[in-house]
């Protein structure tokens, strides 16, 4: 505006405007890669445009179990209210068809007049609703009851009792399954916040730590890992989430792990590993790399199969680090210090890929390896409670 009036030169105004642009606005930082599996195990996948919604109604029980607690309790309450109102309407119609309502309105209903109603003490829809609740939940206050006058009333009584039992079984089963879901047990299965890459046995290894906070064991526990990244086939097909399995070396051998104390899960990076060409310079937040860890097993107390999941992005992998020992021997038993569960220390590690390390073995000679770590044993020095001294003769 000042340049239009001729007060300031136009070149000066443009120069000041360029200088006023903040430095951060010129360069936009690359966004972090979206997770496929969250740190808490939740899958970051949104299902959209599902046309066949009726498939969820074919498995009503699983659909009810998967709902939120607020929705489950709402359906639980509405199912009883709707059934009570439905049968209350049926009882009211039976009483209306039999003339019970007209007879009670005219002041009848005395034992001497010879009229026997279908349901005693049923005068309005409100009393029919109360009778419906008494029948379905088997309260039985004693004021209202069905008589042998109407066979249809006996049939309705049987149908309502059976319907109430079915609703109770379904809804209580859903609540029980929601409280005993397998992922509840997975809350006490923990993983280290970071994964590490270090030398073990002369080779680069990808390692993480897993532990169980409960004393009850996970039976037949097994662990597996996958690398998820975007790949392109030689034919030009783009696979946005290509999953490649990672071979593991379990600490106790075999296909399962004995998860009594925290274990360090190790994967040797060799020629068959998808991390064979991984370099330290690639461990940035925007790199297209995610390692998914899945722990499965049977809960010892309930016998339900549980699964715990986590993932590590590129910037959550520490190159040249190693987990600190957390198991010590105290008073004849092993003690685990979970305050150091995710702690790591730097160790000498070659800054090259596993391929380069395998092709050039002289790289390892330039790396000064640290001494081996052992399980620490705390020694307790006992103070003598008495002293022995020579008595003077």
From TrEMBL:
Reaction(s) catalyzed by this protein? Answer: K(+)(in) = K(+)(out)
The cellular location(s) given in this protein's UniProt record come to:
Membrane
Residue ranges spanning the membrane: these are 73-94, 152-176
Where primarily located?
Answer: membrane
Q: By its UniProt entry, which SUPFAM superfamilies does this protein fall under?
A: E set domains, Voltage-gated potassium channels
Q: Where is the Inward rectifier potassium channel C-terminal domain?
A: 189-360
This chain's function reads: Inward rectifier potassium channel that forms the pore of ATP-sensitive potassium channels (KATP), regulating potassium permeability as a function of cytoplasmic ATP and ADP concentrations in many different cells. Inward rectifier potassium channels are characterized by a greater tendency to allow potassium to flow into the cell rather than out of it. Their voltage dependence is regulated by the concentration of extracellular potassium; as external potassium is raised, the voltage range of the channel opening shifts to more positive voltages.
Q: What is this protein called?
A: ATP-sensitive inward rectifier potassium channel 11
Organism listed in the record = Anolis carolinensis (Green anole)
Q: What is the lineage of its organism?
A: Eukaryota, Metazoa, Chordata, Craniata, Vertebrata
Gene name linked to the record: KCNJ11
